Amino acid sequence: MSTNRFHKAAKDGLLEVLKEATKRDCNCRDEQGMTPTLYAAFHGNLEALRLLCGRGGDPDKADLFGNTALHLAAAQGHKHIVTFLINFGTNIYATDVDGRTAQELAGINNRDDILRFIDGVHAKLEATDKKKAKAMQEKAREDAKKRVKVRKCDK
């Protein structure tokens, strides 16, 4: 199947293959709900992630456990990916199925540099743009509700 090709290319950082990916390919889910965009973040492949996001890959799309690209990168300790995703505009308030943010996953996984970095981003956003922070928090709540409904239908 051609989608597996893009999932594998994202894991391995094969940019030539990823250059052929359409927006749909970038966001296509495998059995775990992982997209090529999520795999690039998980494996710390910045160039692959940059390419996928540029081709329409959505880093806020979550896997079956509610992990966004930011969750995966924070848990894995890929600060360069976390930095890219935050600059890209990823929702720092998104929660997984257990209600945890990427910041909390960084803490659980002893990624103290990432924990402090996201903490600083939170503080800056809430100090300089309360409206944007509120909108992102609301979007994170809505996405979590939708995901819970979808998961219930799966059972």
UniProtKB/TrEMBL annotation:
Family annotation (SMART domains): ANK
InterPro entries assigned: Ank_Repeat/CDKN_Inhibitor, Ankyrin_rpt, Ankyrin_rpt-contain_sf
PROSITE patterns: ANK_REP_REGION, ANK_REPEAT
Renumbered ranges of ANK repeats: 32-64, 65-97
Keywords: ANK repeat, Repeat
Presence of the UniProt keyword Repeat in the record: yes
Annotated Pfam families: Ank_2 (PF12796)
Residue ranges of the region described as Disordered: 129-155
Protein name: Uncharacterized protein
